[in-house]
Amino acid sequence: MEALLSLAFDNIAAKDTQKIRKGLRQIEGMLAQICLSGAKSKPATKPATPAHRRNQSAINLGEQQQSTPKKLGPLGEDPAFREFFRLQEGFEWNVATRVADCLNRLLGMTSSKDGHNDLLILSSLSNLQGLLLLHPPSRIIFGREVYMNVLLDLLDPYNCPAIQSAAVLVLVTALLATPPNTRMFEHMDGLLTVTSLFKDEETTQGVKVKLLEFLYFYLMPEAPVSSVSTPTTAIHHPRSPLDRRSSMASGDDNGGTTKKNIRPQEEKQHMLARYLNNVEALVEDLKESAPFTGVAC
């Protein structure tokens, strides 16, 4: 896995967009192998001839395309996932950081007329969302201004609706159960960025729906979470550099829970009201519908 990651890192760090595309596809393929279960082929009833082998290969390829996602529980016992999670605990092999850096470079490149650069940005965002879900401690990188600024830049009106929508999804994943990141989002005028795009007449309806969902998510009550992040698959592992950095950012280095950086719902409501009218109605609707039941913010 280290060899594959090393090759992918070299590719996404290149200036050649074809190499960047290749590197992003390599990362996507690795994540697909971790998260998808290949369909088991049926045993042959009789030995295959060379011609049959070629035909059988086509059948097997079709079966692989019909792979189904693995369940979260068994995923924790998967050797590939455990190895991936172990490698993510160190900065050298942390994929989320490399993809975020790649995304930052793509934003600095001149957009091509054929939209190829936009496709690379979308691929980076898709990979980044999956990485943050598979390895929650990696979310701590968005407690830094440089990485939070990348996500907010993607919410500028000049970006296409597909990029805006994908950026909102990654932003939700980056803030999920990580209050220090939410404080950085607020510090970087994230509320102004989101509400400005929401009120812009040229923003598409689909993007506005995503932004409204984000505001519901933002207004949810926050709860202290353990500074020692573990995956949802309940893998036990020692504290990593990412864990320790998360602890220092949240003001707790004892491996327990902390209430520092937690902001009351009423205070967040007041902050959002600076940029958006009728926030009280959003809060009431949130209480009645409870769209994110069981989600820690």
From TrEMBL:
<feature type="region of interest" description="Disordered">
    <location>
        <begin position="229"/>
        <end position="267"/>
    </location>
</feature>
<dbReference type="GO" id="GO:0051301">
    <property type="term" value="P:cell division"/>
</dbReference>
<keyword id="KW-0131">Cell cycle</keyword>
<dbReference type="InterPro" id="IPR012535">
    <property type="entry name" value="Cell_div_Cdc14"/>
</dbReference>
<dbReference type="Pfam" id="PF08045">
    <property type="entry name" value="CDC14"/>
</dbReference>
<protein>
    <submittedName>
        <fullName>Cell division control 14, SIN component</fullName>
    </submittedName>
</protein>
<keyword id="KW-0132">Cell division</keyword>
<feature type="region of interest" description="Disordered">
    <location>
        <begin position="41"/>
        <end position="72"/>
    </location>
</feature>
<feature type="compositionally biased region" description="Polar residues">
    <location>
        <begin position="56"/>
        <end position="69"/>
    </location>
</feature>
